[in-house]
Amino acid sequence: MDSYTSLFIKQERIDGKLQEEQHIAVKFRPEPYSLAMLWKKNAPGLAGDAMLYVEGKYQDDEGRSQMVVRPTNRFFRKLLGGHVKKLPDCASARRNSLRRCTEFGFDNSLQSLRDVYMVAKERNECKEEYEGTKEIAGRNCIVLVRYLTADRPDYPAWKTLTYIDIEDLIPVCVTGHDRKGNLLCSYRFEDISFDTGLSDEDFTPSANGISVK
User: Fold this and answer.
1) 123, 41: one domain
2) How far is it, in rounded angstroms, from Cα 195 to Cα 213?
3) N or C, fewer C-beta in 10 Å, the chain?
4) Segments forming the whole domain that contains residue 202
5) HEC per residue, the chain
6) Which pTM was predicted?
């Protein structure tokens, strides 16, 4: 998959509470794995309103790649020199997102869907349906529905709807629901632009509004 920019709209239920819908401008490059996020709406509290992750950079003492995060609060931003570094699976990240930044991207989404499907299929606990086509953000998509017919902790949702863009074969929208129909998660991409020519410079702190002193 090529690099791309997009508006990423997500909503998740964390610890039983449905969070506000977040609007995030993203830049993504698969190699080296690079992700920049700038929150346009409903940044997750004190966690940060801008984030940069580049595989192999900003490492901790153990050589693990870290996120470079701009604190949402301006006072803390100034106090911390404009940024803070965090591991993708740190406690703060887990409190504010169901998925790590290292799991972002169309290929990762498809792989995650496939992994769950294969496990459930082996257990004979999966049912699939085709619900025709639907337009999502101006893209004509086929709609695939998956039901996981058993309650297991390793199953993300009872019902998952995946909207696959017919032209580019990418999952432009995925939603998960519990047995009562409650929304568990929703991930949607709008204004997707491929072949953007994203370079190393596009994945530096300064290019993403993050001060590193």
Assistant:
1) no
2) 32
3) C
4) 4-99+195-208
5) CCCEEEEEEEEEEECCEECCCEEEEEEEECCCCEEEEEEEECCCHHHCCEEEEECCCCECCCCCECEEEECCCHHHHHHCCCCEEECCCCHHHHHHCCCCHHHCCHHHHHHHHHHHHHHHHHCCCEEEEEEEEEEECCEEEEEEEEEECCCCCCCCCCEEEEEEECCCCCEEEEEEECCCCCEEEEEEEEEEEECCCCCHHHHCCHHHCCCCC
6) 0.93
Q: What is the dihedral of CA 89, 117, 166, 98, to 10 degrees?
A: -20
Whether residue 110 sits in one domain with residue 78:
no
Task: Decide: 181 and 161 in contact? Cβ < 8 Å.
Answer: no
φ, ψ of residue 201 in degrees (nearest 5): -65, -30
- In a structure prediction context, what are the per-residue pLDDT tens digits for the chain, which is 213 residues long? 689 999 999 999 999 999 999 999 999 999 999 999 999 999 987 678 999 999 999 999 999 999 999 988 776 777 666 788 999 998 888 888 999 999 999 999 999 999 999 999 999 999 999 999 999 999 999 999 999 999 999 999 999 999 999 999 999 999 999 999 999 999 999 999 997 789 999 999 999 999 876
CATH number at residue 128: 2.50.20.10
